[in-house]
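Appendix B, Record 12. Input sequence as logged:
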Amino acid sequence: MINNKPIKVKDYLDIDITRQQLTLHYNNKKLKSYPISSAKNGVGEVMGSECTPTGWHKVRAKIGDNQPLHSVFIGRRPTGEIYNTELIKQNPSRDWILTRILWLGGLEPGKNRYGKVDSAWRYIYIHGCPDELLTGTPQSHGCIRMKNTDVLDLFNRVHVGIKVFIHE
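Logged structural output:
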């Protein structure tokens, strides 16, 4: 429900926090599922909580088209670096954002849109991460992390504006 109106979509991303899984639905059918990692702090919408927000969202921007696999991003911009073991040693505490970014915007005013709960203003993304960090357990700072080949595949399958439903 958005603004007390039911959502009717046949193409959307379903992010199941309990199962740590993202499923692409196309024409009302499950097309493909991917393992993910959501926030280690659980679900929640408040800015600064480092929680994954729930409810209906949309992909507001696709970032990184034509960048190489394992490209490093800071502030939604490619740094020109390619993730490797030397970079890990140089930046051991960096929250790695790799390969592609799907920037989410909340669609539910007061829940995940506007004010201190706005997912876009919180910079909540679906993005690639070091593959070894995707362990099937919540580990992120609020975003949805994916393996690099998976986020590249997903990026190439979806369009800006596709709906995203995040739930436990």
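The chain has a mean pLDDT of 95.
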